Amino acid sequence: MIAAILAIVFFSPVAFIYGRYRARHLRARSGTLGSRLAALLPMPAFLAFCGVIAVIYQNEKSAAERLALRGEIAPPGLLDTGNGVIDFVLRLARWIGELELILFMVAVPFLLGAIIAALLLVLDARGTFALDPPAPDGEPDLPSNTDHAL
Questions:
Q1: CB–CB of 109/18 below 8 Å?
Q2: For 105, which DSSP code?
Q3: pTM above the 0.85 mark?
Q4: Residue 43's closest CA among 117, 110, 93?
Q5: 108 CB-near residues (< 8 Å, 6+ apart)
Q6: Which of 35, 97, 113, 132 could form a disulfide with 54 if both were Cys (CB 3.0 to 4.6 A apart)?
Q7: What is the mean pLDDT of residues 26-38?
Q8: What is the C-alpha to C-alpha distance for residues 18 and 69, in angstroms, rounded to an integer?
């Protein structure tokens, strides 16, 4: 529990920057709030799916190893379908999920940033919080009051 809280605190600044960036660019597109929120969904959902597949595989693997130590045979796992194509897709999702869990410094800010972007888009749609338009290409994304002397 403490590790999860520390990870959220540590990765919050990067996640907020990414979330604000995504929210600004999605707000600039035409469409409803629902379509903007749906545009945030595919990649985080894919990463969450791959992470869940990796965790299920590791749990089944450790349970099979415990049974093997007692001399028992493990039943077939959830991810063993017998269909070559489905097994390949699940194996590929497991590899991506394992890589994602290893490189959590990339995955956590990305997933938290998507949640922050969704929150900012909802607040902007309600009129509680106003999002600035995105910076034009080639210009830094800095606050508008950058003309003060050094």
A1: yes
A2: H
A3: no
A4: 110
A5: 7, 11, 15
A6: 97
A7: 83
A8: 46
pLDDT given for residue 35 in this prediction: 85
CA atoms 114, 117, 123, 124: torsion sign: negative
* Strand intervals (E) in the chain: none
* Angle, helices 2-28/104-126, rounded to nearest 10 degrees: 50
Angle at Cα 78 formed by Cα 76 and Cα 66, nearest 5°? 55
Determine the 3-state secondary structure of 147 from DSSP. Answer: coil
Instruction: Report residue 99 as tokens.
Output: 């890589």
In this model, does residue 93 exceed pLDDT 70? yes
Distance, first Cα to last Cα, the chain: 44
Lookup result for tokens 């990796």: 54
Percentages helix, strand, coil for the chain (3-state, rounded to 5) are 70, 0, 30
Q: Where are the domains of the chain?
A: 14-126
Q: Of 97, 87, 7, which Cα lies nearest the Cα of 46?
A: 97
Instruction: State residue 90 phi and psi, 5-degree precision.
Output: -65, -35
SS3 assignment, position 59: helix
